[in-house]
User: Fold these one by one.
Assistant:
Number 1:
Amino acid sequence: MVADHIPQEVIEEVRRRSDIVEVISEYLPLKGSGGNYKALCPFHSEKTPSFTVTRQKQIFHCFGCGVGGNVFHFIMKYEHLSFPEAVASLAHRFGVSLPKGRLRAAMSEAETHKDQLYRLNEMAAEYYHKTLLSTAQGEKARAYLKQRGVNARSVELFKLGYAPASWDGLVRYGAERGFSPQALVEVGLVKAREQGPGFYDRFRDRLMFPIANAMGRVVALGGRLLENLPDAPKYLNSPETTIYKKGQLLYGLHLTKHAIRRAGQVLIVEGYLDLISVFQAGIENVVATLGTALTRSHVQVLKAYANEAVLVFDGDNAGRSAALRGKEYFLQEHRRYFLPGAHLSSLKGALEGDLHAKVVLLPAGHDPDTLVQREGRDGLLKRVRQAQPFMEFVFDAEAEGHDLGSVQGKLAYVRKLLPLVTTMTNQVERTEYLSELVKRTGIAPAALADELHRLKQGAKPAANDGVAYYFPGLGPERLLVQLLLTHRSWIPYARLQVPADFLQEPLLRAILQALYRLASERGDFDIATLLEALADERCRDLVARLVLESVGDEAVQQQIDDCLVALQRRQIEAQLKRLKEDMHEAEGRGDMVQLAHLQQQFAQLRRTLTRRGRAAP
Ligand SMILES: [Zn+2]
C-alpha cells in the first residue's frame, strides 16, 4: 500500500495534529455536541443530515450513502486527492514537515506526471508574472491594467502576467530551468514549428491569467489581447489536459472558496476581469465560468461550498443567452429547488442544504466589471439581494421571445416551458409552475394538465432520490467484527479460535484480517490507523458505519463467544457435509478402507460439534 512509502510515524504525526472535527468544519457547517457532529452530506443529495463526525473516534460516516473513513479519507474524497497528496496537504496545513523524496517516491507514475504538468504551468505563470512586473516590454500591459483599474494587490493575488511579443521567451526561460520545449508542448504553451525544427511560444503579446484549481495549483493559462486584432481571437486558453477540464474548472475558486463557504452563497460571473474587479471591490464570494456555460460539474462543485448561486450576467443579449445555456444543467441537477420567491420562505426548511439559483441581469451595456467600477460594491450587492429566482427568470426570458397576445404565441410559450416543468419531481412545485403558466397565458388549467400528461408519457422516469448502499445483514460475522472493532483487547482471543477465512462476506473478512494483523504487529491501535490499513474503500466505509452503530458494552465476552461458536459450528457443519459426500463416493467405489477412515473422522468431528453445542448457552 502507498502509505508504506511515507514513514508511518509521519502519517501518525499528521493525523494526531489534524483533529477531524476541526478539519471537516472548514468544509461543512457541523452541528452537534458531546463529540458527535452532523451535517448535510457533501457526497450525496439529502435534506436531513446523516453525515456524522465523531471526535473521540476521529472518523466520519454518512448513514445516507455509506461513505466513511478518517480525516485523510475525507480530504481524498472531497478534494479528489490521492492518499499521499492528502497527507501532504494536511501536513502543510498543520506544519508537519515531510521528507520530500519519500513523498515523491510514494506517488504513482500518474501522480508524478500530473505534478510535472502543474510545475510546467507554474513555471510559465512565474515567467509571465515577472515579465509583467519588471521588464520594459511589460509596460504596455501594466498601462492596460492601470486603465482597467486593476490594483497591485490584485495583480499579485491573481499572479497576472504578460506574454511578450517575442517568439521564444517562454521556450528559453523553460530551457534554462530544465523544462524541455516538448514538455511545454504537452501543456499547450509552446508549439512545434511546422516548417523546420524548433519551437515557438503559443501566447504572444497577451495579458496572462493563470488558471488554478481549487487547491491553488496552476492547471492552465488564459491570454487576452491588449488590443483587438482582426485575425486573432481576443481570448486564448490552454488546451484541455489531464489536469485541466474546462467544464469543471471555476476561475478564482482557490482564493474565494472560504468566503463562499462563509456566505453560503456564490456569485457566478463570466470573465477573468469581471471576477477580479468584483473581488477587488470587496465581494469575495465569486467565481467565473470563463465563457463556458455553467455545467453539471460546476454545479456539483459549487454545491459543496454554497447553497445559493447567483448568476450575474451582462445586460445584453449575449449575456442573457449565456444565462439560459446554464439552465438545463440546473434543472437536471436541482430541478426540485426552483420556486417563485414568494414560496421560498415557506419551504425554506425543505430547501436548506441545496443550491438554489437566482439571476441578476445587469443594465444594458454593463458587465460586472463596469458595474462595480461605477456603482461600487453596494451597487452590485443591492442587485444581488434583488436577484430573481432562476425559474421565474426563465419564464420571463421566454415570454420576451413569444407574442403572448396571440393564441399561437401562448401555445408556443407553453410548449417551450412545459417540458421544463415536467422534469420537476416535486408535485408541489409542478403545481406552482403550472398555475404560474395559467396566470401568464390564460390557458385553461385542464388543457395544460392534458398537455403535461402527454409530455410525461414520453419522459424518462425520474431517478430515485434515495441512494441504497451495501450493508451486510446482522449475523455472527457482522456482530463479531463489530464487537472486535470496539473491544480491541479481545482480538487475540478471537484470533486463536476463528481464522479470518471462516468469514464468507468478503468485506467483513478483509476487515477481520486487518484487525488480526494490526493486533499482532502493534498490540494496541486505534480505528483511524485501521482505516489506513484498509486499501478497499468499501471496507473503510463499512468500518466507519460499524463503529458508529453502538453495540452494547454488556457481556462482551459472552457475545464474542456466541459469535465464535456460531462461526465454528458453521465451519464444522460444512466439513461434515463434505465428508459425507466423500463417504458416499468411497462407498460407490467399494473402497471400504477409505470409507472406514472417513467414518472415523466424521464421528470425531460430530462429537466436537455436540460438545460445542452444549457449551453454548
Ligand atoms: Zn452521504
Number 2:
Amino acid sequence: MSVLEQIGRPLGTHPSANPDVFFIEGSSEQGAGLACFASKPLENGQVVLRAQDPVASTVVAKFRKEVCAWCFHYTFGDILKFKLETPRRRGAAWFCSTSCRDNWRKLIGDVGWTAIAAFEDGLARSSKSGVSNTEDETCSLQDIETAWDNALKSGEKILATRRTKPRWVPPTATLTHDVDLDEARFSLSAFISFHNHPHTYDQVKRLVPTLKLYTDSRATLQGHIDIYLYMLSVLPLDSPIMRYVTPLHMVTVFTRDSGNSWGIWGLELAEELFAYCMYPTASYFNHSCAPNLSKERIGREYVFKAAREIPEKAELNVSYLGGAEKTLGFRERQERLLIKAIEEEMARTQKNKVGDGFRPARRGCE
Ligand SMILES: [Zn+2]
Ligand SMILES: [Zn+2]
C-alpha cells in the first residue's frame, strides 16, 4: 500500500479527552468535519479541557535561545541561562529555569535525549542556515507518491551503508534552511512522544490530514524528504526512535501539523512566531467569531473554559484568532519566515527603509 493510501484517519468514534464535559461528533454545520458538543449544561467559567503537553512542539530556530523550550517564556532578547548540551557541546535546548530544564529532560527521557543529541550533533557538520526563496511549484498526488517512493529507496541505501560501514559519515548540509530545521525538530519531538506514549500516535492519526502542503509546494515536499534522509543518516541505528523515521510517520505528522498546530506568538505588534505545538486533544474545537469557550495558555498548558452558560449538546467553539495565539498553516509559517528573511535582508542593505512594508496580512474572519 502506498504512503498516501495509509495516511487516512482510522474509522470509528473519536474519544473525547474529557467525556463528562464534551463529546466529539460529526457536525452538519462543519460539512464532514468533526465538532465538540457539551455533554451536559456547563456553567460560566467551568473548565472544559486542560491540554497539558503538546505531542509535538518546537521553538523556531531564530528564538531557540530566547524562548524557553518548556514553558515558552520569552526573555526579550536575553540569552536563556539554562541549557542542555550534546556530547559535542552543542546547545540542544534552552530554558528559563532549572525546573523547566529538568521537566523537559524528564519528559523527553533517555531514548529521546540520545536521539535529539545525535540530531543536533549531526547538524554541526553544516553551519549554513537561512530561508530558501527560490521559485516554488505545485505538484500532483502522483508526484508526491513517487517522491516518497524514491525517498524510501534512498533511505534503505543509507541504512545499508551505515550497517556495513559503521564509520561512514553522512553527506553534509542536507538541512540548510531554518524552515526545514524547525520542521525536523518538530517531527522528531512527535516521534519521541510516540515512543514514550504510544497512544499519542493514535491521537495524531485521528486528526484531519491535508495534502495541500505538498500539492501547493514542491519545496515543502522536498524539505520533508530531506528531513527523513537526514534523520536516517544521523540518529543512532539502535535507537527505538528509528522505527518512526519512515515516510508514513513523516507524512502522518506533517499532514496533521498543517491545520492542527497552534502557533505560540510573542509580541503581538511585531507578529513574531516563537514556537508551534500540536495538542491533539484540543484540535476538535472549531473556530467561531463569537466563541463560547475562552482559551488561555499557562506555560505549556492550554486551559479551555466556558465563557458563558452553555446548554447541553451545544457546539463548543474557540476563537483561533483571539489574544496573541493563533493557528497557522504550514505555508503561512513558511511565508512568515520568508518575510522575516526579506525584512532582515532589507535591514542589511537599505538600513532606513524597513518599517511599514512587508507586514503579513492578518487572517480574516469570514
Ligand atoms: Zn521555562
Ligand atoms: Zn471567523
